[in-house]
Amino acid sequence: MSQFRVLAGVLKGLTWRCWAHPKRGCSSRTDPLPAVVSNSSYVEEMYLAWLDDHKNVHKSWDSFFRNIQASGPSGEAGERRPSALLQGRVLSRSLDVAEKVVEDHLAVHTLIRAYQIRGHHVAQLDPLGILDADLDSFVPSDLITTIDKLGLYGLNESDLDRSFQLPHTTFIGGQETTLPLREIIRRLEASYCGHIGVEFMFINNVNQCQWIRQKFETPGIMQFTNAEKRTLLARLIRSTRFEDFLARKWSSEKRFGLEGCEVLIPALKTIIDKSSASGIDSVIMGMPHRGRLNVLANVIRKDLDQIFCQFDPKLEAADEGSGDVKYHLGMYHERINRETDKNITLSLVANPSHLEAVDPVVQGKTKAEQFYRGDTQGKKVMSILMHGDAAFAGQGVVYETFHLSELPSYTTNGTIHVVVNNQIGFTTDPRVARSSPYPTDVARVVNAPIFHVNADDPEAVMYVCRVAAEWRATFNKDVVIDLVCYRRFGHNEMDEPMFTQPLMYKQIHRQEHVLKKYSEKLIAEGVVTLQEFEEEVAKYDKICEEAYTSSKDEKILHIRHWLDSPWPDFFTAQGEPKSMSCLPTGLDEEVLQHIGQIASSVPLEDFKIHPGVSRILRGRADLVKSRQMDWALGEYIAFGSLLKDGIHVRLSGQDVERGTFSHRHHVLHDQEVDKRICVPMNHLWENQASYTVCNSSLSEYGVLGFELGFAMASPNALILWEAQFGDFHNTAQCIIDQFISSGQAKWVRNNGIVLLLPHGMEGMGPEHSSARPERFLQMTKDDPDHIPEFTGDFEVHQLYDCNWIVVNCSTPANYCHVLRRQILLPFRKPLIIFTPKSLLRHPDARSGFDDLAKGTKFKRLIPDEGPAGQSPGQVKRVIFCTGKVYYELAKERKQQNLYRDVAIIRLEQISPFPFDLVSEEVEKYTNAELVWCQEEHKNMGYYDYVRPRFLTVVANKKPIWYVGRDPAAAPATGNKSTHLNELRKFMDTAFNMSSFQD
């Protein structure tokens, strides 16, 4: 019996299929070993029961005892009397054999797991056969690639034909529970080491891992019908022949063709087909330039003549703006999906050459469409992002975008990422372009499965795309498809790749086209005939030729035909505003009072707030009683009044819920109940629009791109992004430069996004002072040497003519007005607001409710309304300024008692420059000298922008003097004493009546 105790000890604690006697009540295949196994009498009892009848025990026990018997001498093995087996030599040998059987089974289980974890490292992924997709030719030692490697597991060649029990963590057996080791290895290689390499074992969810195993391990699961193969071939023909046609007609034009990854087109169509079948009816896509024309033609189905006419150098622009090159443009199209007979909307978002910049924009647009449709689970709207391998690994916005994927206010419920893995970046070898084995490794941070696939195996690609679409529909999580391919030509068709990759391109020149290989395969299988194949090719070639002939009639480029986010109910059919006037932005007293009361209260009962927040709310209540507002209340009124009118408001950014400067408190937290919050703004009106306020990840580039995409979806929403400090926007400069400043000119993309940038010199150092207004002003398109002439409303026409609006408000009322004007304008322009820090609580930075009353509006310029303004002829100096510095100037003027000598005029809207109002003020003060005063350094801020425009106003008849800090390299000093000395110096200059006299 001691030997049974040893055997029981070996078995104790193992999790096997089920090592239990059926009569013991353990029939589940996945139950762990019962504790009774630790008792040697139980093992003996099982053995005796098995001797009576092999069916008395579970088949795993049956297999175990058969192995023991088979190892004994032939005469003794056949002995059926228990005493003969349980005593003497046979039992002694049985113990050794039992231990070996257990060890061998465990070894096989470990082997299976090794293939699941590392099989992709030896998968045949490179169509060229010259590179390793993981940049390493090393073969993991725990994969059985040669017989001698069996020794790593304590196995040898003789074990190859032994049958082993399969664990429940594999599906390679299909309906079988045991397989010979040789067959186990063969099936593992077929599942994990063929043209598909699967990375998924890092996922910490057992059900998700099992789901993936089932999709790739089940024997015979990757099957296609003849009809599906013919559809795949037809799509491959279109993809290939489209590129061939462009190459024949425009051989010397850049087109960034798809040659070498033609399978991308059928891949995308498969994803869309599968997603449409699961209920998706809107797909938003983003991609770099390679293959864009092909995607437009054969996925979104842009008219071919519209694409071909883009190659005409004589094409004249019909629309406002510069337009963009053809492989940067986007498109929006509604059509029937022929595979599912369901309507589907496809949108490809325009993208500049900053390859991955479009990623968060697509995600924001997708989130917006899901939000407005109430699609909280992403069952109707989804996104597909295409990437290049070098950009996917190298550009940080990819990482930022992935980290938004599961945040509550940013998730799109799963994105399908398709990497066109050229195995090269422009001229850079991947071995010096990334440190990770694969370009897709960044996706592992969010537990996204990664399917690597050889792009020269179309059926493998299609299967992977099906699985990816099913994954997204099942788990609502991101998934990555890595199409390992090659680039048949250089970075563009004019480039010579042999300069830098001679060996690769020698092989590429010998490489047979995927269409040729796949067509020959289907012809050999009898799926299609050679004649049918040639007829399909000829059919598409004819379509291209007819479109080419038609394209010659196009003499005018209509960029509006390439809109990726049309707003059909907002503009006229010609894309023009329905009016050129702005509705009044003032409000009724009852609206002001109601919003003020909610803003200073807690709408929920039994909700305990922090004492500090209680003081803030009481302060708001006091302001409301006195019909006054500070900055936070002015913002509250702007948002609340728009919500009343059905306008969705979304405020996003780092710490926006409370506000970086603890002034906003739009989300209240119960001090006694975890995660219990209250958003009073959502309790204003019965049928109001919803208010979304959400703290973001510590990202500017990704989050600003996301909010830009959100704002693209609808004109009837106020979308705001607030930087923690104004200068933090510089890490999002790409989005600002490429999408916000120039988006309308390049892509006719109207967008009303609002950037809130805290700005002001307050001795907080160079990183927390300047929002760099000079950068925004430099990118404005208004002419400094020409005063525009408009009939009708000058303000509205000037706003319509600009590329964005730049303001620096000095009063809460004006801030409220400009936010309301942003929505009440008949068009949309980006709005840049330099918001205050110290003015949030400055006692003089207050507005009365009368400043928001009916009939009031945003003041582009605030004139001097004191003694100087009432007696302009006596004024000796007019100081123009903007923002916070006004309060410092006003304080200094008061101290020096220069009310009648110096007028202070505030420019609230800096761009477009209010020529009309500035002219009125200059004409009013005919005897005064003109000064521009700013707190920023002379080479920064507003001076370089306003100076030529002032000179245009005065027709260069008098100068405008500069007062402010001297030029500097850093935006501000980090020394408080130096800061105060600088302030004192330019204040003295501003009010020294002789400082500018000859």
TrEMBL record:
One of its GO terms (molecular function) is oxoglutarate dehydrogenase (succinyl-transferring) activity. Keywords: Calcium, Glycolysis, Isopeptide bond, Magnesium, Metal-binding, Mitochondrion, Nucleus, Oxidoreductase, Thiamine pyrophosphate, Transit peptide, Ubl conjugation. One of its GO terms (biological process) is glycolytic process. Its cofactor is thiamine diphosphate; Mg(2+). The keyword Cytoplasm does not apply. Coiled coil: none annotated. It holds the Pfam family E1_dh. It catalyses: N(6)-[(R)-lipoyl]-L-lysyl-[protein] + 2-oxoglutarate + H(+) = N(6)-[(R)-S(8)-succinyldihydrolipoyl]-L-lysyl-[protein] + CO2. Residues 629-842 form the Transketolase-like pyrimidine-binding domain. It is an enzyme of class 1 (oxidoreductase). Its EC number is 1.2.4.2. It comes from the Eukaryota. GO terms for cellular component: mitochondrion; nucleus; oxoglutarate dehydrogenase complex. It is found in: Mitochondrion; Nucleus. PANTHER family: 2-OXOGLUTARATE DEHYDROGENASE, 2-OXOGLUTARATE DEHYDROGENASE-LIKE, MITOCHONDRIAL. Belongs to the alpha-ketoglutarate dehydrogenase family. This is 2-oxoglutarate dehydrogenase complex component E1. The gene is OGDHL.
